Amino acid sequence: MQPQPQPPDQPVPRSAVPRVVIVGAGFAGHRTARTLSRILARKPVEIVLLNPTDYFLYLPLLPQVAAGVLEPRRVTVSLVHTLPGVRLVLGEATHVDADGRRVLYTDPEGSQGELAYDRLVLAVGSVNKLLPVPGVSSYAHGFRGMPEALYLRDHIIRQTELATAETDPDIASARNTFVVVGAGYTGTEVAAQGSVFTGELRAQTARSQRSRMSTSTSEASRGAPPRWLLLDIAPRVLPELDRRLSTTADRVLRKRGVEVHTGTSVKEATADGVRLDSGEFVATKTLIWCVGVRPDPLVADIGLPVERGRLCVTPRLDVPHYPGVFACGDAAAVPDLTRPDSPDAGDGGFPLTPMTAQHATRQGIVAANNVAASLGYGEARPYKHHDMGFAVDLGGAQAAANPMGIPLSGPAAGAVTRGYHLAAMPGNRVRVAADWLLDMVLARQGVQLGLVRSWSVPLDSASPELARFPGASKE
Which of 113, 124, 399, 433 is at 20 to 30 A from 69, Cα to Cα? Predict the structure, then answer.
């Protein structure tokens, strides 16, 4: 049962040293904690970071984990080692009592605790976006956390191996068919990296069976190549990005054999496949849901004003009428001061900043600066950031990028994209670069680890960073 806040007449005792509590260690939360630890070094302020895991997950490289390019620990950066002076509390926030100035949480072993605060930064991020499509919540899997990436990697290998041993060509074809819904940043990279991965797995199988390809079974399995479909209701892939990036990504995907279906959505999902709104039925055992994200459900449960599901904040990232409460990243409805004339402008006269890692990281810096200012160290300033461009890794040497508005494709874009990721990562740079070099000269390991099962990573989860286990509460 979710713990309930105590009555207001029972105040939580506080230390004489001000305490800053940061909830969430994604791009926004990690950068807030890191910047605060530098600004407030040797200052009489306690910084506490509440997060379900002991690592920061570099999400942009997660598709490469699912495709066997990078080992899981390469994209998980230790919070303890990269945040000196910050106290880590392992736990998942269950309730924020803004009036009582405390956060209630559940630790990894199910015990409940609470953290009193003088300043609070909410950076809980986002979870998979759901749509009311029959069967999707039962048969689809999202792509927002490490458990989902590990499951998908095992699942792709398993389906490829089962298809190889299958005597029924229709079943083999279904196992070799992979459907990705959502042609945004994540879905495009998953389809691009996945098509390379399954192609390599099939090539490895063909080489190992070349000397004994006399049976009809082997010939049938060899004749069922992997099939990847990328679906989106939008008129083009990467609809939120520059059209030149979209054109480059579309060309690379189609050349690689990915079937790109724009203006198309899923009408129903079943155990045997998916039915499209066009009426076509695609037999498959794999449905990957990448239609977008929504703010963490904790945001709506706080009881503070929200806009489009995100916590309303001022340009200085503080919550109106609640002194000492700040929010940033995907959890916050941050006005985009760089686009005052946008048709998407809301009641405040400005549109909201997109839910991207680029904005979350820079909002974390501003949030840290303004929290410190509220404690008497420095001056507060508003958040204002112009996009510096985007980069999409399409697998192998292929990528699409527009750094500072300069459109790039092919190996040049690939070099820029990987250089950007290495610069943006707060750790593990040498290990990531080493894995990339090894992937260029060695075959990928097509081995199932069996650590994450299908029921452990439900699509409808408020905690995609945690795998569900038997007996765990669903709250």
Answer: 124
